[in-house]
Amino acid sequence: MSNCIAIDGPAASGKSTIAKRIAEKLNIAYINTGSLYRAVALAALRAGRDLASIDRGFLDTLQLEYAKDAAGGYELKLNGAFPGPALRTPEVAAGASLVATRPIVRDYLLDVQRGFAGERMVVMEGRDIGTVIFPDAAFKFFVTATPEERARRRLAQDGEAADGATLAEVAREIAARDKQDSERSVAPLKPAADAAVIDTTGLSIDEAVDTIIGRMTRQQEEK
Ligand code: CDP
Ligand code: CDP
What we know:
- There is one protein chain.
- The protein is of the alpha/beta class.
- It has one domain (2-215): Rossmann fold (3-Layer(aba) Sandwich).
- The protein has helices at 15-26, 34-46, 56-59, 90-99, 103-117, 129-133, 147-158, 167-183, 205-222, and strands at residues 2-8, 29-32, 64-68, 74-78, 122-126, 137-144, 196-199.
- A hairpin with a 5-residue loop joins strand 3 (64-68) and strand 4 (74-78).
- It is globular.
- Bound molecules: cytidine-5'-diphosphate (2 copies).
């Protein structure tokens, strides 16, 4: 069994926030795997590459590593630098979802993700952690919320960075990504058969975190 707490789910469901809090409470590492797909898209956009035809040669030019940032958490470095807000633009989000449909990209990033976790206990958050990256994860959660609530959360989160985007635009961007992520043939977004589905629509962040920690505690007691 892998020492991984897998947290998967659709965009803006609260995965990163919840995963980070759980890692802090348990004093273990937290890894956001979406940033890997975002970094591949960002690098390809910067290089003027066609996102739909990224090949192994291009991937081999990238240097991707998780390193401790100023706040002491692990963040992704692309070619030796923390990309910062450049990873969070709507263009990069859409590009990430596109490159994530390519088996060559997923295969390449699978090794990076497994290599990071190794023996240590880690909270890993993404789309396919419980289904593909660590199918034998010790704990698996699928965090979700209604599309309306997720659009509302993303708009509130991005604030000015959203470039004056309306709720309807954010909802459309999220719906397009949900569709592409769920319908792709490799590692589609779906709950693992043995994942606990946590609908956070009516929950605060604290309530969602407490629900997950409570379930982990019960699961351990039942062993
Ligand atoms: O990682 P993911 O895209 O799934 O979501 P996130 O970036 O963790 O959360 C999106 C926004 O929703 C953040 O601003 C969170 O603070 C907020 N949120 C919330 O309002 N209520 C929750 N239960 C979870 C997250
Ligand atoms: O934060 P948010 O939920 O909006 O997105 P993210 O977690 O940063 O992921 C960006 C995109 O990367 C997703 O829309 C997926 O297409 C892809 N992704 C993936 O395919 N597998 C993962 N484990 C993580 C992200």
